[in-house]
Inverse folding.
């Protein structure tokens, strides 16, 4: 058999170097793959459809990107019950563990926030925080009907049962408005642990078993969160704007004032500032409507109010159209939003009265503007006096407002030096008549001065 050729030292060194480089390149990737990640978002405002959409997107992102858990750091006074139900449904059926941390110290999970915290796989609270006070209220801040309260009680108790939490507290926080501190919540099985910081929380829940997925297909997973890398999931600029506009009062105010501004601009065109402001306010109002649940009937009443205000501005009278528009606008504010939402009467009635009175004022101003003499074009020259500088039979030339005009006598032949008064126009020619000797003297003195 032929003898194999010995490997040269240089070739052997190259092989070792390639193996070492491959190990170095693979090591970071392997370490990154093994390091757990947690998606973190913050809710520190009213619970609205914008927040519900944001948390739903967070769950999808956590599942898609393979994060160990979704951590929601929360401080909220409450919010809309319908949006809360959507969030709770998402949390109860989430394939990704959800950790809710009521933080920082002094924060609260009140009303809607309490339902959301109870629905999490892990509920944690920072020292000095509290949870509870889940009695539903109307849009005007009054306590809801007994029917609505009973429904909310059943909702809260069912959440507590699925998560193995204190059902007595769930019932009491709705019926009696009960709220408890962090220590009391942990002691009575309302929350799972009291912890002050994010890193301490991730270390504490590491190794905990939780059931994920919908009720019919639930399975246990073990949380691996110690030393996890944090990935922020923010609401973003446009989400923040939508959250800011998610207010029935702002929506009603923008739509009302914007409509009046556009109507006045159309009735009495000017610099366009009113129209621009009105258009911007209307866009903001409709953005708010896209966030909030609204009734078509209320929107139709708003359109009727706009039509009546337009009639008042275009055909001003004794204010009948404005009065009708004010009533329609007030009823539109009452009926515009669904469920527990509603425009606060402290905003509704003053805005309706101000917009109605504004339509009356706008109608008067537009009427005066339409009756005012023209300040531009040939009409502005009617009644002006001048001296004929050049004459040629029936026509001549005069200097008015720094420009030369061709003039033609109405009944007389024009002569140079004659004082004339503009009485009409024909195309680009001005029709003039003699100004008379007395007016001519005054005009000559004015020209001389």
């Amino acid at each position: 058999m032929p003898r194999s050729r010995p490997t040269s030292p240089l070739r052997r060194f190259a092989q070792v170097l390639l193996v070492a480089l491959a190990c170095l390149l693979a090591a970071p990737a392997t370490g990154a793959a093994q390091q757990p990640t947690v998606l973190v978002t913050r809710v520190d405002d009213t619970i609205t459809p914008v927040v519900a959409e944001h948390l739903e997107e967070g769950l999808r992102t956590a599942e898609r990107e393979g994060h160990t858990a979704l951590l929601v750091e929360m401080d909220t006074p409450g919010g809309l019950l319908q949006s809360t139900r959507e969030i709770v449904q998402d949390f109860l059926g989430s394939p990704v563990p959800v950790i809710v941390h009521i933080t920082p110290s002094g924060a609260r999970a009140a009303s809607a926030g309490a339902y959301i915290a109870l629905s999490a796989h892990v509920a944690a609270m920072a020292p000095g925080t509290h949870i509870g006070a889940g009695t539903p209220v109307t849009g005007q801040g009054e306590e809801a009907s007994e029917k609505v309260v009973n429904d909310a009680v059943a909702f809260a108790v069912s959440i507590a049962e699925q998560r193995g939490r204190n059902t007595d507290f769930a019932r009491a926080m709705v019926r009696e408005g009960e709220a408890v501190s962090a220590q009391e919540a942990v002691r009575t099985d309302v929350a799972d642990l009291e912890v002050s910081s994010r890193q301490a929380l991730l270390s504490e829940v590491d190794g905990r078993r939780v059931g994920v997925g919908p009720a019919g297909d639930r399975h246990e997973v073990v949380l691996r969160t110690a030393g996890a890398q944090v990935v922020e999931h923010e609401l973003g600029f446009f989400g923040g704007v939508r959250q800011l506009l998610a207010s029935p009062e702002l929506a009603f105010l923008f739509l009302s004032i914007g409509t009046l501004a556009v109507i006045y601009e159309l009735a009495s065109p000017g610099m366009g500032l009113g129209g621009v402001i009105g258009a911007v306010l209307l866009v903001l109002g409709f953005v708010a409507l896209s966030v909030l649940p609204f009734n078509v009937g209320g929107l139709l009443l708003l359109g009727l109010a706009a039509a009546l205000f337009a009639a008042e501005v275009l055909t001003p009278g004794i204010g009948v159209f404005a009065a009708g528009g004010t009533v329609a606008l007030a009823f539109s504010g009452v009926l515009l939003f669904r469920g527990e939402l509603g425009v606060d009467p402290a905003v509704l009635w003053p805005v309706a009265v101000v917009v109605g009175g504004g339509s009356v004022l706008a109608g008067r101003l537009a009427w005066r503007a339409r009756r005012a003499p023209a300040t531009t074009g040939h009409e502005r020259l009617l009644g002006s006096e001048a001296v004929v500088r050049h004459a040629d039979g029936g026509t001549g030339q005069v200097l008015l407002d720094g420009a030369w005009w061709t003039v033609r006598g109405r009944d007389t032949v024009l002569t140079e030096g004659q004082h004339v008064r503009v009485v009409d126009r024909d195309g680009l020619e001005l029709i003039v008549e003699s100004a008379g000797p007395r007016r001519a003297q005054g005009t000559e003195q004015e020209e001389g001065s």
Summary: Residues 27-33, 438-449 have pLDDT under 50 and may be disordered. The longest strand covers residues 419-426. Residues 388 and 418 are 5 Å apart (CA to CA).
